[in-house]
Amino acid sequence: MASKHTSIEIARMTFKLEFGSYTPSGETNPNTGENILEFAPQFKKWAGLWNLTQTEQLTLAGAGIKDAVVFFVRHDKNITSDLTIRRGEKLYTIDNINYDDGLTADSFDLITCHHEVTKHG
């Protein structure tokens, strides 16, 4: 079966995303006494940026997802919505993953996410 994301060009996969989660940094916030969390990468994937249509942008805005970004990566069952994404210095919360079937070499997943405000504990 062919990929359902047929308009994806491998040549547009020009950057790597880090996938990971927050872990205690060992430091304590002096104001709250809470443990400060930091991003801990678990694995990296080559990715590209998927361009949203105006209809897709309106649909996401209606669902309460502002400033949405959609990345595409090769199909990977290890990517789950409980992970956080880092691209450069920006962290992103995953809102939705449109998984491809993963049965062919041209299978891609679309990951809808939004820029995350840094958590300080």
UniProtKB/TrEMBL annotation:
Name of the protein described by the UniProt record: Phage head closure protein
Gene3D superfamilies reported in the protein's UniProt record: Bacteriophage SPP1 head-tail adaptor protein (2.40.10.270)
Organism encoding this protein: Lactobacillus mulieris
InterPro entries found in the cross-reference section: Phage_SPP1_head-tail_adaptor (IPR008767), SSP1_head-tail_sf (IPR038666)
Alphabetical list of Pfam families matching this protein: Phage_HCP
